[in-house]
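Q: Can someone sanity-check these two? First one:
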Amino acid sequence: MRGKTDMARFIEIGLLRYPDAQEAAIHGLHDLFDVANRMADGLGAAQAPRVRISVWGVGAEEELLPEAPSGDDSDARLRVLIIPPSLHAVPHDACLARHRSALCRLHQEGTVLASVCIGVFFIADCGLLDGRTACAHRNHVQLLKARYPHLRAEAQQVLLDDGDIVSSAGLMAWTSLGLSLVQRFMGNTVAAETANFLAVDPIPAALPGTCLNPLLDHGDEAVLKVQHWLQATGARTAGLAAMAACASLEPRTFLRRFRLATGLRPTEYCQQIRVCRAARLLEFTRRTVDQIAWDVGYRDPGAFRKVFQRATGITPSAFRRQGVTSMPEDRGAWRSDPLDLEIG
């Protein structure tokens, strides 16, 4: 989502070093983002922020601490924390518990949590994936489901970007995760050039309207609480009264603060979440368009089709046939849909 522009000088991305974390992934991600910065410089992408990498660990008081100061703390708040994979077994309960409060606090403050392979267990142990879908390596799907029955584990997708939480499957999926973050913060061209330099598969350019990039660092805790709730529930039953109650605000005050924080009206924001989830279902399941419309919260499949086409420029059926790399010139525009029965 790009309701308003955030051109901070640096995007601070942290890497979590925990016992038995794969050092190759930590160093590889550091190199990937360094290459992305060099590609942005070479392309003259003056408007694109640069990525700054820091490595973090949990201290004696279970607080998250940087291993070395960044030197320039003008924009040092973590935008993303990546939890790398491990070559060893799933972290034991004590290790997960030791990281729980720090990860929950970061998420509550608006930091995007991202995981590679068994890194997803850290996020799941926080309860942040309850009711949501996350990627997991096929060897760990059953264990993840058994330990955390309230989440849905997906082994067919390499990467699942759900806005405030991103998960990826497989030990080497850190390349896809890193490129997806470059694409989110620095743009398609920088991501493609980075992949080309590293000689790895590029991330397909997402069809407009089908990829979430929510503004989470606006500082309004009440609005952020609602954003997390909407992501967790898929915005399926989100009415204005329910959102205002979640924020503990009067509806009029909530509307004003939500738009100021995110650049979008609540209805528009919810529509984006629904369309992004619908696109994922269209791509990775065999459900009919009518079934998907119901799954993402539309009682009227016709209303869903109109919203989807307005957001992406093509119909749901055409999206399924052509795939996500299609880039029509008429992208449509986000706006309220009077046919949206849930949050009119």
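And here is the second, same format, sequence then tokens:
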Amino acid sequence: MTASIADLTGARLREHLGGEGLRFHIGPFLYQLHSEWLDIAAWLERLYAVYPLAAPQDCADFHVELFWRGWRKRQLGVRFDGEILPYPLFGSDYAAPHMEWGLNWGVAMHAHWLLMLHSGVVERGGRALMLPGQPGSGKSTLSAALGWRGWRFMSDEFCLIRPQTFDVVPFPRLVPLKNAAIEVMAAFAPQAQIGPEFPETHKGRLAHMRPPAEAVAAMAQPARPGWFVFPRFVAGTSARLQPVAPDLCFARLATNAFNYEVRGRTGFDTLYRLVSECPAFALEFGDLDAAIAALDELPARD
């Protein structure tokens, strides 16, 4: 049985963070995390307990480090693979969200062997439901909610496509809930583990939700592309699911991706195949239960 972060005692966890680094998996990526501020261990014990530790012989994909900076006022910074990330200095009370942004930085900037769409992803019956959207569209909240209502949560923001096999690769990281979504998800899924609030970030009020343990346990299992649904939260509206033409779907995806241009011809060919094979819809919703009921009626895929 694979060991997880929960298997490390508090003292041993701190030894890893301050020494050779804590090595753990999120989806296809192996992170090595160092921290000069050892109290980040409490965050990891609370929200990362179910994430698997890496085998000693495995090489890390990304190295992330929290380190002390400044000489007048002691504050923290983030290094990624030795490069200082362009964040303002921050106090230890905001170390956790900056660490999370550092973990995401590596994927968005360097995981170019995958086609990366800016999209939530959930799975059922071996098929992935991909939920592309801009910030504020409700994709993260809807993806998180579906993960507690019969779908396997795969990601709230990164839809990772392996061009060689056409698989959708899970990346079940913590879900950053923003502003009103914090209370919405706390009421919708009271069994969910939600961390402390950070009231003043560049994205507003923020709290992180751990995905269901089953989603983390299954993060080595890819899915086949199934459907595209472009969500749009509009308070007070009923759920409406309407078809989206393939040409419009392609244009929206191409402009809503992390590395479509970087992948060149491979990016075009992969996106063309996705749009050709996956029916696409627009979903306007004002209520999570109604949205999930509408998505449960999507046309079946073999």
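A (reply): Looked at the second one. The longest strand covers residues 115-124. The chain has two domains: 5-110, 115-295.
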